[in-house]
Automatic annotation (TrEMBL):
Residues 1-40 are annotated as: Disordered. It comes from the Bacteria. Gene3D superfamilies: CBS-domain. This is CBS domain-containing protein. InterPro entries: CBS_dom, CBS_dom_sf. Residues 98-146 form the CBS domain. It comes from Actinomycetospora chibensis.
Length: 155
């Protein structure tokens, strides 16, 4: 009796994500930017309160011709690192915010995920006609992968 070796195909996707039908654009996944924007001079403690009140994981900070973002966790870390220096609560949010990639509203989910990994930041700013119009974060990307046909983030 002869035996035939069985080989298993390598695990992973059969095609790259951009070749799949289910690779929605950023405009479908993003959260509107309006309620998530603060001035660069907003104090760190105020920005943290705004993020919590609005239920935002990230805030957008625009100033000096650049778009930056700050995560709620980074604001918390900034305050905790103050230790005996409570004056750090008065620091402007621009001291904590970091520059993030901007993407167009038609940027596909797979490309957005690549950019998030490349910049090691879980958020992108969606820009249309030179103006930020939304935030796309890693949670929204994951939700879209797990959530079936309705890719819009839940409030």
């Amino acid at each position: 009796m002869s035996t035939t070796p069985v080989t298993t195909p390598p695990r992973g996707l059969a095609a790259p994500p951009e070749a799949l039908d289910d690779d929605p654009p950023a405009r479908v996944l993003m959260s509107p930017i309006g309620p998530s924007e603060v001035s660069p001079t907003t104090r760190v403690v105020t920005a943290l309160q705004i993020a919590r009140e609005r239920g935002s994981d990230h805030l957008v900070v625009r100033g000096d011709g650049e778009i930056r973002a700050v995560a709620e966790v980074d604001l918390q870390r900034h305050l905790l690192e103050a230790g005996v220096r409570p004056s750090r609560m008065l620091d402007p949010v621009s001291a904590v915010a970091t520059r993030v990639h901007g993407v167009g509203p038609e940027t596909r989910r797979s490309r957005a995920a690549e950019l998030m990994l490349a910049q090691d930041r879980p958020v992108l700013v969606v820009v249309e006609n030179g103006e930020p119009c939304g935030l796309l974060d890693a949670r929204s990307v994951l939700r879209s992968l797990a959530g079936g046909r309705d890719h819009r983030p839940t409030p």
